[in-house]
Automatic annotation (TrEMBL):
Membrane topology: Multi-pass membrane protein
InterPro entries the record matches: ABC_transp_permease (IPR001851), LivM-like (IPR043428)
Name recorded for this polypeptide: Amino acid ABC transporter
Assigned keywords, A-Z: Cell membrane, Membrane, Transmembrane, Transmembrane helix
Localization annotation: Cell membrane
Transmembrane is among the record's keywords: yes
Coarse class of the protein's main subcellular location: membrane
Source species of the chain: Ferroacidibacillus organovorans
Gene Ontology molecular-function annotations: branched-chain amino acid transmembrane transporter activity
A GO-annotated cellular component: plasma membrane
Length: 305
């Protein structure tokens, strides 16, 4: 099977699963949350998998999109779909303002992105800005509540995210990004515009998180700052990507299916041991499978989409 067909097959099967999933298992919130985490994991994948930058503060873009979309709905009375697009654009602008962080590398970049997300969180939740963001009291979108439409919009965002990852997986642009990840100096000497490529991946990743945040805000309709700026959102998305393997379309999908399924199973069957079991799994992953499950197939010569 040609590479493009493999990626198209994975994309269609994934979207079909979420399209009919609520008819197989009626817990719509679980399916919606799974789409949110899968889209965010692919957003992390676009940045970390293809450039090597690991953003611990990725949730900052998610929260920015959630708040921006909510304010566009409540203050400017925009249609929710237009407001979600506005949330994505706002996250892109914030990403552009924070693009100097890309001058950092390794742990310094991760910590810098984390500090930036906390800065946005404390700004949004500041009681002095209650007239603008409602401060610590959160947002109420009950007047716009429509779980069926928000589910469909989230499915469309997921399709866009998967298509973007599939494009990077097999395009010259994705190959150039991976070259900058492996050796930026050699890539620059080969004529690859390293800075422009990194900023493009950073902004695409930020936009995806903003769109997902807007759809999430519309779906749950009532939320607080610590809901959409919760660092666990970043951690889950990162772990799903690392477990499956970066720079691939299939890796974050496998990571989300296995670990999110495990997360729900442990949380229901043994909630008192949830954090312990999940923590041990993450440690084992880092120690024995640092490049994710997909690396096992690559070692055997399989071309993983």
């Amino acid at each position: 099977m040609r590479n493009g067909y493999k990626a198209g097959f994975v994309l269609l099967v994934t979207l079909l699963l979420f399209a009919v999933g609520t008819h197989l298992y009626s817990n719509e919130d679980m399916w919606f949350q799974a789409m949110v985490y899968l889209a965010l994991a692919q957003g992390i994948n676009i940045l970390y998998g293809f450039t090597g930058y690991l953003p611990f503060g990725y949730v900052g873009f998610f929260g920015t999109g959630a708040y921006a979309a909510s304010l566009y709905m409540t203050d400017f009375h925009l249609n929710p779909i237009v407001a979600i697009l506005g949330g994505g654009v706002t996250a892109l602008i914030v990403g552009l303002l924070l693009s100097p962080l890309l001058r950092l590398s390794g742990a310094y970049f991760s910590i810098g992105s984390l500090a930036a997300s906390q800065m946005i969180y404390y700004t949004v939740s500041n009681p002095a800005l209650q007239a603008v963001t409602n401060g610590p009291y959160g947002m109420n979108l009950e007047a716009f509540y429509n779980p069926a439409e928000s589910y469909t919009v989230m499915l469309v965002i997921l399709a866009f995210t998967l298509a973007a990852t599939a494009y990077l997986r097999y395009s010259r642009m994705g190959l150039a990004l991976r070259a900058t990840r492996e050796d930026a100096v050699s890539a620059a000497m080969a004529g690859i515009p390293v800075v422009r490529m990194r900023i493009t991946a950073w902004l695409l990743s930020a936009t995806i998180a903003g769109l997902v945040g807007g759809a999430f805000a519309w779906h749950i309709s009532v939320f607080y700052p610590n809901t959409v700026f919760d660092l666990n959102v970043s951690i889950f998305a990162i772990v799903f990507t690392l477990f499956g393997g970066g720079a691939s379309l299939l890796g974050p999908i496998i990571g989300m299916v296995v670990l999110y399924g495990l997360y729900n199973w442990i949380g229901i069957s043994a909630p008192q041991y949830f954090q312990l079991i999940y923590g041990v799994l993450i440690v084992m992953l880092v120690l024995f499978l640092p490049n994710g499950i997909m690396s096992l197939f690559r070692k055997k010569g399989y071309d993983v989409p």
